[in-house]
Design a protein that fits this description.
By secondary structure, this protein is of the alpha/beta class. It has two domains: about 210 residues, Rossmann fold, CATH 3.40.50; about 50 residues. Helices cover about 35% and strands about 30% of the residues. It is built from ten helices and 14 strands. Strand 4 and strand 5 form a beta hairpin. Helix 4 packs across helix 5. The structure holds adenosine-5'-triphosphate. Adenosine-5'-triphosphate binds next to strand 2 and helix 1. Keywords: ATP-binding, Nucleotide-binding, Plasmid, Transport.
């Protein structure tokens, strides 16, 4: 459990985060438009950058300028682009990282490395070099090296970005499994992944919190604001230009277009909101 109270971060004259208060637990999805401050917030939680004001409690302990986290290795942070030791087999790379973390007994290291490789489903790839692995596998190595330190909080910055569909599904299942015993924070632009994984969601925009709550509560924000048009191909351009189009599906004759609108849409049918609609409602409603 992480409690963030009135956290603010400035870089030069820019307010990157302003009075952010969040209660993070379970598998927590952090979403928001580009530049919302998600990465900055995650880096503060991982003690990779400082905050200017505010208070962070992790499992009841106050974090003072990052000291608590570093001393206890409580947090594991996986950045967007993870890569270590490109030309070394992954088993050796992990062994080396375990040694740097203070595990000096070779036999114990072998057991621990074997355990984390198994946990992230990389058995059979131990002797491959990092550059020989796919993007998804590299991310799994990134998680494996975090698990060596047994952190109780894992932070992933856009973990599913750039993965193909199969790898994304595998990766999502792994994150869900890891979340059974740990607090996990995930940022993503892929709302579908957030929907699949998260038990709680925070929406940030321009450094401010616009929403915090359950996926159902976020979805409810869009109730009464999602409309479906059935249109011909020649109407599609104007529709995309003038309306907030959420989704376009090609049908036998023409298209079904989902539109987000808080006003009544003449000629369209009011339909059930999805999570992405709730997100759009939060972002549209907040001044941020
Ligand atoms: N070192 C820096 N110097 C100046 N501005 C910065 C610095 N780091 C971040 N920013 C600014 O802070 C804001 C928030 O950036 P951040 O990377 O935290 O957003 P984000 O929500 O993770 O964005 P994205 O979804 O695009 O990854 C952006 O406007 C960015 O330009």
């Amino acid at each position: 459990m992480i409690r963030i109270e009135n956290l603010s971060k400035r870089i030069k004259k820019y307010h990157i985060l302003s009075e952010v208060s969040l209660d993070i637990e379970g598998i927590y999805g952090l979403i928001g438009p580009n530049g919302a401050g998600k990465t900055t917030l995650m880096k503060i939680l991982a003690s990779l950058t400082s905050m200017n004001a505010g208070n962070i409690q992790m499992d009841g302990n106050n974090m003072v300028k990052g000291k608590y986290v570093k001393q206890n290795m409580l947090v594991g942070y996986l950045p967007q682009d993870f890569m270590v030791y490109p030309n070394i087999p992954l088993e050796e790379a992990l062994d080396h990282i375990a040694m740097l973390q203070g595990l000096m007994n070779k036999h114990e290291r072998k057991i621990k490395v074997g355990q984390v490789i198994k946990e992230v489903n990389l058995q059979g790839h131990e002797h491959k070099k990092m550059i020989e692995l796919s993007g998804g596998m590299r991310k799994r190595v990134g998680i494996a090296q975090l698990l060596l330190g047994n952190p109780s909080i894992l932070i992933f910055d856009e973990p599913t970005a750039g993965l193909d569909i199969e790898e994304r599904i595998r990766f999502r299942n792994l994150l869900r499994h890891l979340g059974e015993e740990r607090t996990i924070i995930i940022s993503s632009h892929i709302v579908e992944d957030i929907e699949f994984l998260s038990t709680k969601i925070g929406v940030l925009k321009n450094g401010r919190v616009l929403f915090e709550g359950s996926p159902a509560e976020l979805k409810a924000l869009a109730k009464g604001s999602v409309w479906e048009y059935r249109i011909r191909m020649e109407e599609l351009d104007d529709m995309v230009r003038y309306k907030k189009v959420v989704q376009v599906t090609e049908e036998n004759e023409g298209f079904t277009v989902r539109v987000f609108s808080q006003e009544k849409e003449e000629g369209a049918e009011l339909v059930k909101a999805k999570l992405v609609d709730g997100y759009l409602a939060a972002v549209a409603g907040g001044s941020g």
